[in-house]
């Protein structure tokens, strides 16, 4: 069998200046340039990386159309890398979404709108953004074995959404996240929770995950970073231990995905299970036991 070329990926752990598009674009260009110098093929930025975690209240000023000049300018910098960046999207009909755009070679090649809006604890997505209605994926240019899904933050806490993207053929998850220690509540350990969720999804579905979380502070929120790349057996391949900005880089082997899904065929079996659930054969009746 011919050797399969590894894929070098990176999580761009960055600090966002709320509402300052020019400053955030400068950070993105710097990270993109470094990623290309280091041979990275896919670089993932945090959620709302061009606008700021709490920027929804300023959506009228900060929102960009998916063909906006700022996105296309950044896309032109991505000559040798595919970049997933977070922004406030203004769609036709004056609708606003918490979205990520995938950029490459001067084009916006894919956009995902956050589906599971986080409106709990200190999180106010539902006050400013509409729910996304699609869970698409795209093939990595020049290497279609890698089918990439780009769920945003709370999307990854929905088992149904993660099941669907894996069942539909995703072989890599680019996860843009904006997670603060205090976001959910004082009794909720966000860093430990994310570690559990990422490992579980990767292990159960044989699905590598590039997890990009931001750093810094916004008002009372402390963003803890911890960006990492998780392999298809649930193993951590690389992880940030820094409180500051950095690229977290790892090499992914597609053959490892093949082996993980052969050894633990959750994705294969999902088709049969979904068919049973869709037919209603799972049963909702309560059976009395004599």
Automatic annotation (TrEMBL):
A Pfam family recorded for this sequence: CN_hydrolase
Could you tell me the keywords of this UniProt record?
Hydrolase
**Highest taxon, organism lineage:** Bacteria
| InterPro entries referenced in this protein's UniProt entry, alphabetically | Aliph_Amidase/BUP (IPR050345), C-N_Hydrolase (IPR003010), C-N_Hydrolase_sf (IPR036526)
Q: Which residues form a coiled coil?
A: none
The answer to whether the entry has keyword Hydrolase is yes
> Which range is the signal sequence, renumbered to this chain?
none
Ranges where the CN hydrolase domain occurs:
7-254
User: Which PANTHER family does the record associate with it?
Assistant: BETA-UREIDOPROPIONASE (PTHR43674:SF2), NITRILASE C965.09-RELATED (PTHR43674)
Q: What is this protein called?
A: Nitrilase
> Which species is this UniProt entry from?
Paraburkholderia youngii
Q: What is this organism's lineage?
A: Bacteria, Pseudomonadati, Pseudomonadota, Betaproteobacteria, Burkholderiales
